[in-house]
Amino acid sequence: MNQLSANLRDRLEAAWERSDRILGLLKAEAWLQRPIALRQPFLFYLGHLPAFAWNQVWRGVLGRPSFNPEYDRLFERGIDPVGDDYRPTSVAWPAERDVLAYRDRVREALRGSFDDVLALQGTDQLADRGRIYHLAIEHELMHHETLLYMVRQLSDEYKQRPGWLPPLVTKGAARRATIAIPGGPVRLGASFDALQFGWDNEFPEQQLDVAPFTMDATPVTNAEYLEFLEAGGYERRAAWGPEDWAWKERAGVRHPEHWVRHGKDWLYRTVFDVLPLEQVRDWPVYVSWAEARAYACWKGLDLPTEAEFHRAAYGTPAGTSRPHPWGEAAPGAEHGSFDFRHWAPTPAGSHPAGASAWGVHELVGNGWEWTSSVFEPYPGFTAYARTYPGYSADFFDGKHYAMLGASWATDAALVRRSFRNWFQPHYPYVFAKFRCVGRG
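Above: the chain sequence. Below: its structure as tokens.
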């Protein structure tokens, strides 16, 4: 086995190991639970992760027949949590033991596929550099985070707290400040040949200029958002867009999803704990895009555009672009909260080594950052992965907003400048923070 094969194998095994660890948080009776109604039950994801990799590698690139086409189809694709387009609950889901057997057989086949796939290099761009494996691996890594959205929403009776959880961090926030970012050049996206792997929406590279703006040095915290709530922010119609207000009223949204009202007090729910909100006042608040935009409007400000985020995160006074906010170094523990080093937020700005050239803190880590930019293709976009042509294109519908950066539950492999995430504006479960910008 050559070095590329060995590296891909090790990364695939590591992704599987974390999948098993996360799904191992569930009790036996949890498999058919749907703590988020717009998501499938947990059992679906037990089958979806191997089915996706199988359909991409074994069927998509190697063109080989399936040993279980029924499961390949049943678990092929998840749900975009926008509306009520989910699989009916009357589906007769297979038994857990049968899905586990399917998973194990898929894994064994994939372990023996590297030489055959990499032999196609030069004739298939999905085989070149092992791209199809990177695609399968990163898909699995992204699902680790979405699974944890579900685990956080799951009733305590269906999950078990592991003994290896890292301790919570509640002290060490950076001082609030507003940073003036001068106008200048911005580089979005990447050159296809410059990355070992990137998703189709990351290409091609774009060069543009942005006007001057100001930006919060740290994301909005729970304490700051509480001021908005106590000022009647959820009742101030002028702060909300028409569709956002209609959603809020229809869904009865009166506070962030992670907050819990207990008498006169507010509590905060993590994946496994319920804490006094005062204890985590310096953590960034996690809210939907609609709630973030309402807060910004209340302040007379806005959310940053995708280009403004890039200027603040990766630009420099010299007019150059850094690969990371902090510079050239690979993402490390000192740079921010990502890669599962913490299993909850940390105080806003508590990783000063990760600040950008302008002094803006944690643009990467501790929560994805909402932007005001609709998720759209860059000019020249091509859905190059023939095995997964709808990965991005299905969501270029004007109904999703770009999120950038990373959360504590984002694997370090996804911490790259060109990586883009997206969700619709009324989905409140994402580990997503925000900050405000001023213009003019």
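The domain at 3-158 is CATH 1.20.120.450 (Four Helix Bundle (Hemerythrin (Met), subunit A)).
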